Amino acid sequence: MSEGGDVKVHIAQFFNAVDKLEFMDVWINGDLLSIMLLYSLPSSFENFRCAIESRDALPNVEQLKVVEEYEARNQVTVNESGAMLAHHSKHNPNSKFGKNSSMSRNETNAKASSRPKYKCSFCKIAGHKYADCRKRMKQEAEKANNTEMESFFAEVAQYTSPDPTRGTEANQWCLDSECTFYVCKDARMLTSSVRTRSDIRLANNATSVVNAKRDVKLLTSIDNKTKRIRLENILHVPDLRTNLLSVAKIVDKGYQVVFGPNRASVRDHKGNIKLTADRQGDLYILKGSTEHANTATQRKCSETEMWHQRFGHLNLRELLHMSKTQAVSGFKLKNNSEVSNCEICITQKLTNFPFSSRVHRSQHRLEIIYSDLCAPMQTSSIRGARYFMTLIDDHSR
Fold it and tell me: Residues 186-212: pLDDT tens digits?
């Protein structure tokens, strides 16, 4: 917004842009939206911006919109009063230069001494704002350096692009030498999981919740042959970014893990390869996919049901009539044909009882009135109104 512009027009344009972003499925956090609205104002609103930022909690966007319009009206009133005072001083023949300059200096000193001392809402120390707090900046910089990592390769995993032939990233498994358990992030991988409630400690000493524990079946390809492998005691940790295979657990089962420059392999005591993992960046991604524990049953659709669906769920009587009169070429049904319980037809025929009327109601007009005030509208009416109130009489409604 330019200096001296109309605040109402600026706010209307601002929220118009926000509505366009939401129409494109781009959502902005409420606090971030309030900050963006504050910093879109010109420098003349600096004191107002500092006063809002020094609060412990930022107001929501609707509250901030009303407060900004009120502040804009106050500034217009102050500017008009200052202009009238300057006009009066200019035409005062009794004023003297020395006296006026002395009064001006005194007024300036008085204003400087009466300026509010802002108190930071973060460190609770007066003299600076939340945005300029050095203690807050230092802590945020330390948090950025101590980024949470689930294992030694978690940070690298964000920059590696998996092979599209392996399936989705959620089905991938990585060999991790620091992980002490088999862990997965998708509960659908578990076969008949057992509910449990415990905590697991990550590599950065943070804890995460374990929701379930069960087995997982993997489909892997060895020598162009697909094999099914079962992993026991898999922990479901939804906070993880990647499914992890513990090298320590594999070794404890009597297998040997061999890491090469481009590939890693899991071998039994005879040297037979059971699993292979290709290197992608600094990760060893298992070759194979997860067999989800999903079961699906499909009932064979009869010919009558198929024609019932093709004709937009037409009733059986009309279908038999069309078949008997040969209204459709190649359409034949037996006289004893039936349509089983069609879920779509049952759903569309469902009805609900009407809402019961109120037992108690006012006996006279204007005895009870329901009122509601609509929030400020972004687009004003022809006469400039942005609010409207509804009044409903309980007796005559």
Answer: 766 666 555 555 666 666 556 666 666
